Amino acid sequence: MVDRSWLKESATFSRPVIREIQRAAETGIYDIRGFGAKRSVPHFDDLVFLGASMSRYPLEGYRETCDTSVTLGDRFAKKPITIDIPVTIAGMSFGALSAQAKEAIGRGASQVGTSTTTGDGGMTPEERSESKYLVYQYLPSRYGMNPQDLRKADAIEVVVGQGAKPGGGGMLLGQKISDRVAEMRDLPKGIDQRSACRHPDWTGPDDLEIKIAELREITDWEKPIYVKVGAARTFYDVTLAVKAGADVVVVDGMQGGTAATQDVFIEHVGIPTLPAVRAAVEALQELNMHRKVQLIVSGGIRSGADVAKALAMGADAVSIGTAALVALGDNNDTFEDEYNKLGTSAGYYDDYQDGRDPAGICTQDPALSARLDPVAAGRRLANYLNVLTLETQTLARACGKSHVHNLEPEDLAALTIEAAAMAGVPLAGTQWIPGKL
Amino acid sequence: MASFDLTDSTVRELNKHLHGSVSGKVTVSNPGGKHSVAVGATDAHEVEINGNVGYYCAGMNADASIVVNGHAGPGLAENMMSGRVHVTGSASQYCAATAHGGLVVIEGDASSRCGISMKGVDIVVKGSVGHMSAFMAQTGRLVVCGNAGDALGDSIYEAQLYVRGKVESLGADCEEKEMRAEHKETLQTLLKSAGITEYAVDEFKRYGSARKLYNFNIDNASAY
Lengths: 437, 224
What we know:
A: alpha/beta; eight-stranded parallel beta sheet; B: 2 domains
């Protein structure tokens, strides 16, 4: 037995780093995985609410109303949507997810009066019928894109990028290309699908303005049009999205999840959600469009605290993806033995790309997919969304707010200098915001 | 018959007519390079546009037959589902991008990325096409009576390409294929549908996917 107390691990060449070098040498293939960034970055945990005291008075926790409704898309659309809670479900494709998972998401979101979103691969009848509000993503691949479904949608989201891979395209490996997925995407079964990262018929914000006008013409100016960007040069991206005519801007931070992307992309491209929210809000304020063009923020939202902090920084709503999958049953201890057979463990599973998800969520295998009961899983998601909302209301009332949108940066303090600089709120106990006079 | 003079009428009024009314003949005059002319048609209208159009003319067309007596800007017939679009002049870049069905005929030239990511549409170009045409083309047929620019059919899937003239270069995973009898018959049908009679099918070569990049193989890494 070796006495490990004498062994010193390299901070630069840690055991996971050494293992990855060995894996790369053995296979010659970069690591592709799902989930979002796993490295530690400044996040909403680094902020706290100040709460009411002598200078502010709170609302009664269970008696006084705290409104959570949000209207999205009233800048140009004839039919904006009003959701009951400030939490939406992010775009996740049929293909990446099983049909049962998509149905469950639709059920859960609808039970609490919020929206869900399609993904790369088109709209399935199951998710349309089960979703009270369905946002139809308009992606570079245009898999499954057609004007009939466009008109069935409640809103359209033009996807420029996502937080897990700003500048990257979609990826769906052959293991998950079933007959149905292949048919919806007009591609042969079993091939690796590497979706384009740029739209095929527009480049840049001037073209996007014309493209958005075309989508409005096709849908008779009824649908709210969102523009989604991965967090990178957020101030400029949001400014240009507004200039291009977006009703709603969606900003996805680097902690945002993916079904399949290179690990090097997930961990090394894009900026965290925290500074992205501040930059997006500054852009909207500079244009005098804050609250006129709505801002949805995603990337690492887990709790009502995260929701409330994003809203306090100026977001109109948040969006969840990874947390929604966990609520459905992803990474549940129930499947520990099967996770072990895949070389991993509950809480660590991220191989969404390989189609062998024991929870039946990130798979197209009929037997695995059948494990997920869409009704029960939908209820779990609804429960979770209710908890997020109740937690958000709890914090808003503690700050004396009768609507969650009344939360403001003044209600926040930062616990670290980095978070203070990124979020633009004072370091706790000071009036100091690094970078500001 | 309905008429829209886009000097006085708006593109909105035209498109609203194409979405809501029963099919019929529609003439459009003075388009003046406007964008989104005749997009999202939902029925078998017969639309004649006299003049040049801007971006996305006939975008997402379903069933309508649209003739442009002039030139078309970028994104002509993008994501078209069915029907027919015929341009007597030339078309700019991204012609018929991601289109799922129907027939697009260009009597002049089409610029770069013609048929990019096409998903079942048939495209016949009497002139030449620019670089990166049929990039990531999934299904459908592209016929080019003139020449093709660089990187034709880069990362192509199952679409079939027929080129009569010179191909500047083939893109990754695109190769020349044998022209068998069934392909000649297909090509003949497409040329006839486009109203092109002056070229013989024997003058064309066929191109398609080598299918070497369908699943990742480290030994093909240099192709990416």
